[in-house]
Amino acid sequence: MLELAPETRGLFKLNVKMPFKFGNRSMEIDLFANSVQIALEVDGYYHFQDQTAWRRDRRKDLVLQMQNILVLRFLAEDVVSRLSEIFSSVKQALQHQRNKH
């Protein structure tokens, strides 16, 4: 959907390796828009299976925020059932980031 909409076409790249580490390897973001510094993370059920995975995601968010990257997290199941709501949130984040600059 991001590639179909004019306002987001070409902005987000899939599985982007960042130029900084998270733990002992390069951080990877599910979808990243470099020009507006927005990271989209899609969390499947395994992200909530144990507290360690949940805590890891929170640490990842902090590292990204310290790099001035806005992080939006969505449930994988919502990508299907609530796609318009997610897209609305992404557009709102884009507007916010563009207004900052």
Architecture overview:
- The chain is of the alpha+beta class and 101 residues long.
- The chain has a domain at 1-8 and 42-94.
- It has three helices and four strands.
- It has a four-stranded mixed sheet with strand order 1-2-3-4, with helices on both faces.
- β1 and β2 form a beta hairpin.
- The chain is globular, with a radius of gyration of 14 Å.
- Residues 29-94 form the DUF559 domain.
What's the layout of helices and strands?
Layout: E1 13-22, E2 25-33, E3 38-43, H1 51-66, E4 70-75, H2 76-81, H3 83-100
Parallel strand pairs: 3-4
Antiparallel strand pairs: 1-2, 2-3
Protein name: DUF559 domain-containing protein
Domain DUF559: 29-94
Pfam family, one: DUF559
Q: How would you sum up this structure in a few lines?
A:
By secondary structure, this protein is an alpha+beta fold. The protein is 40% helix and 31% strand. It contains three helices and four strands, in the order βββαβαα.
